[in-house]
Amino acid sequence: MLAYVIQYAAGRVDLGFEVPSVLAICVYIIVTEIVSVFENLCALNHELVASPLGKLFSQTPKVEDAEKLAAGNGGK
Fold first, then answer.
1. Which of 4, 30, 46, 50 has its CA 20 to 30 A from that of 12?
2. How far apart are CA 51 and CA 57, in angstroms?
3. Which of 38, 37, 8, 43 is CA-nearest to residue 22?
4. Is the separation of the CB atoms in 9 and 21 below 8 Å?
5. Other beta carbons within 10 Å of 22
6. 60 vs 74: CA distance, rounded Å
7. CA 24 to CA 4: how far, in whole Å?
8. Amino acid 17: pLDDT
9. 3-state class of 13 per DSSP?
10. From the centroid of its chain, how far is CA 23?
């Protein structure tokens, strides 16, 4: 809803360029959901973790790792 409001307002105010906020937000939501579904599938079928896509996700930093890193730096 907010994306439509931003795009409508950008059309009313001449910024000199168009803001494709609706498309960008829709793509973000779709990609996020696809990643979430794959993570759930990996939890159900551990063989998927060894797949090329699973290996890509295993290389990304985890939330726990970020918390440990932040705690080691004085919590900053």
1. 30
2. 10
3. 8
4. no
5. 14
6. 23
7. 11
8. 64
9. coil
10. 15
Residues 16/17/22/25 CA torsion (nearest 10 deg) = -120
Element housing 56 (H / E):
helix 52-58
Reported as type and span, the H/E element at residue 42 is helix 21-44
Q: Each residue of 38-68: b (16+ CB within 10 Å) or e?
A: eeeebeeeeeeeeeeebeeeeeeeeeeeeee
pLDDT tens-digit readout, 5-57: 777 777 777 767 666 777 888 889 999 999 889 888 988 988 888 888 888 87
Identify how many contiguous H helices and E strands the chain contains and give both numbers.
Answer: 4, 0
